[in-house]
Amino acid sequence: VEDKARQVRYQFFLKVARVNKLNKIAVAHTKDDQAETVLMRLIKGSGPRGLCGISAKRKFDGIYVIRPLIETWKREVLSFLKEERLSYRLDKTNLKNIYLRNKVRNLLLRDLQNDFNPNIKEILANTSKEITKAYDFLHTRAMGVFNKISSFRGDDLIISLDKFLKCHD
């Protein structure tokens, strides 16, 4: 249900952007969301790409989704809104532990903070940054190797088996 709702939400955002000839959509993911995402993906089983977490900028169908608050804690956003006397909406289902993200946010992270490390969210958010740097480096290196061992003949991709077998796993 959560994933389907996210897909529908982004389809709506993209449609509105196209209709209004916009090239960017800003969403309000925070550093808290980043920590939750990394922990959720770790629990579900993810490789390096998934553990990169939520990217600050991503392109969908020619439109950028940007996350300008991804380095800001939720408490800082709420404090700003309070200071400026700005209202906001709260999705009441976020308070119910019926979805994995809510359980991670409301139960697991709370217990990890209280019982193991009060800085767990900072650690998870920083881990996503470090994994992102490592992933980007490895991806760049892998593309360099791919370009050295492959070529195109028309639409056909040709890979040198001799060169491929000498590559790192």
Describe the structure.
This protein has 169 residues and is mostly helical. The chain is 57% helix and 11% strand. It contains seven helices and five strands, in the order H-E-H-H-E-E-H-H-H-E-E-H. The protein has a three-stranded mixed β-sheet with strand order 1-3-2, with helices on one face. It has a two-stranded antiparallel ribbon with strand order 4-5. Strand 2 and strand 3 form a beta hairpin. The radius of gyration is 20 Å and the shape is globular. The protein starts with a helix and ends with a helix. The relative contact order is 0.12. The mean pLDDT is 95.
Could you outline the blueprint of secondary structure elements for this entry?
Elements: H1 2-19, E1 24-26, H2 31-44, H3 48-51, E2 57-60, E3 63-66, H4 74-83, H5 100-115, H6 120-149, E4 150-153, E5 156-159, H7 161-165
Parallel strand pairs: 1-3
Antiparallel strand pairs: 2-3, 4-5
Helix pairs in contact: 2-5, 2-6
Core attributes:
169 residues, mainly alpha, three-stranded mixed sheet, two-stranded antiparallel sheet
The unreliable regions are none
The average pLDDT is: 95
Strand order within the widest beta sheet: 1-3-2
| C-alpha end-to-end distance | 37 Å
Helix/sheet category: mainly alpha
Sketch the major β-sheet. Answer: 3 strands, mixed
Number of helices: 7
Helix fraction, binned, reads 55-70%
Number of strands: 5
β-sheet strand percentage:
5-15%
Radius of gyration computed on alpha carbons: 20 Å
Helix-strand string = HEHHEEHHHEEH
- The general outline is globular
